[in-house]
Amino acid sequence: MSEILLVNPLFLNQDPVERRLVTPYFPLGLLYLAAVAREAGYDVAIFDAMFEENDDAFRAALAQHRPRLVGISALATVRAAALRLAAIAKASGALVVLGGADPTGRPEAYLKANGRGRAVDIVVVGEGEQTFVALLNRLKAAGWRLDIPLEDLPGLALPAEDGAIHKTADCAHIKDLDTIPFPARDLVDLDRYQSAWRKAHGFSSLSVIASRGCPYNCAWCQKSVFGRSSRVRSPRSVAEEMRQLKERYNPDQIRIVDDVLGIDRRWVRAFHAALIELDAVIPFEALSRVDLADEETIRLLSEAGCRRLAFGAESGSQRVLDAMRKGTKVDQIYRAAELCRRYGIETYFYIMLGYPGEDWADIQATLKLLKETRPDEFSSTVAYPLPGTEFYEQVKDRLVPAADWEHSAENRLLFKRPYSTRFYHWTQKLLRKEWQAARLAHREIALGAAARMRLAASRLVTRAGVEVLRRMPGEAELLPEGEVPRLRARAGEHQVAEPGEAHQRLRPCAEGGGEAFGVGGRQFPVGDEPLNRLLQT
Q1: Using one digit for the tens of pLDDT, what is the confidence trace for 379-411?
Q2: Number of structural domains in the chain
Q3: End-to-end CA distance of the chain
Q4: What CA–CA distances, in Å, run from 357 to 133, 354, 367, 391?
Q5: Which residues are CB-neighbours of 314 under 8 A, at least 6 positions away?
Q6: 77: DSSP letter
Q7: How far apart are CA 9 and CA 52, in angstroms?
Q8: CATH classification at residue 391
Q9: What pLDDT does residue 495 have?
Q10: Strands 487-488 vs 495-496: parallel, antiparallel or unpaired
Q11: What region does 344 belong to: left with phi over 0, alpha with psi -120 to 50, or beta?
Q12: Residue 82 domain-assigned?
């Protein structure tokens, strides 16, 4: 029997894009919660849905552990699964607590009763460790009853008798991250994760987080969990964790899931030295900003084992970058790409289309950027307004009704724009094909004669499709899952489509600082599959 059962509700086989990409990471946030709860004296177990077939495995785990409390981590992309498992846990007699980015941003979606009654008892809001342990202590002292006062505990959202949601005071962030024990990875079968990676990609990858929060002010970014500040672990602590991962699991690479790596060049220098001193150098990838990519930083990261850096390039238009409050310059994007190429670090760009005010000239500037910088990989996403962001406030009067995400691949156009959903999907195709052609012209990729002909033909078709669509009125339609976007020009019957190629649907971020905490950040690439950010698509 375990007092606490923590749950990762993502079923790999139930998510079409996760199933195709096979880039699984167990959410670090849950492992941190498990570590602090165990340190506080609780018997903790974890149910990981990742490789399970269906809910029966969760029922079996409940029967095995008979927990007094079930804690579930949720993002918007797994809300349905999280609520489904919450109902099963509630029916078993356990108390049910939800946490993560989505419950933090929308506690009412979890605490309001549905037709079958309310399954979630409490939502932990924001950074979870301190609140979760305090909550466990209060509930255990009361014999695991709910009819006790909890309003004085910071960091909670509670259901009120009148159906409203009561939020307690904010919980202060943990200032010294080195005081938190390393994630309780021993509670999860990480060898199974490693095997899945190797089978799908030929290499394995594990994740580490070195900092929490982001001090920058991008208008579209939701920072409901870690906030607009940056708290950094000591370089030696991060290096020691990487050394332990290297010794115990020997992954082929590490993914550092911070929102931004390298804010402080002094930290980068110390991290570089600690990795070398502890024999902890292992290939890793991370997300940074183009305005932080000076020559010394890129050189040090390269020497420390960095094999790929992802950058939020967003747009080739300075006007759009300024509207986003990105705080970067287009020439800095070019400089970052050149420096990474010089020091042997692969680059991955995030591109955002459809931000308010963007026009065709801005999109052409983005196309030019991709053709001239030629990152090793990139992903494009259609701007998605998250509640609590400046972007959301800008467009809230233009939002269109839409159901929640059913899986992590959905790319929904949820506010009215000058162009249609299909225009943006076809523009995403155009960006990719023109980028491929530019890399081919610079001999950065190789294609056979037949493949070259197919690329040339598809570029022509895609250009024609975009030209037709950009002259059509905008609409905020949602394309059905798996639909091939077919366009019919008003002046004739010629169909503009690419047979057999389903429209691009993008994947929201599943990490960005740990799923259980769910920082509104990004998912960056691992291996050769492009992954996309959370929240903007």
Answers
A1: 999 988 877 788 988 888 877 765 555 444 445
A2: 3
A3: 41
A4: 45, 8, 17, 12
A5: 320, 321, 324, 326, 350, 351, 352, 355
A6: G
A7: 10
A8: 3.20.20.70
A9: 25
A10: antiparallel
A11: left
A12: yes
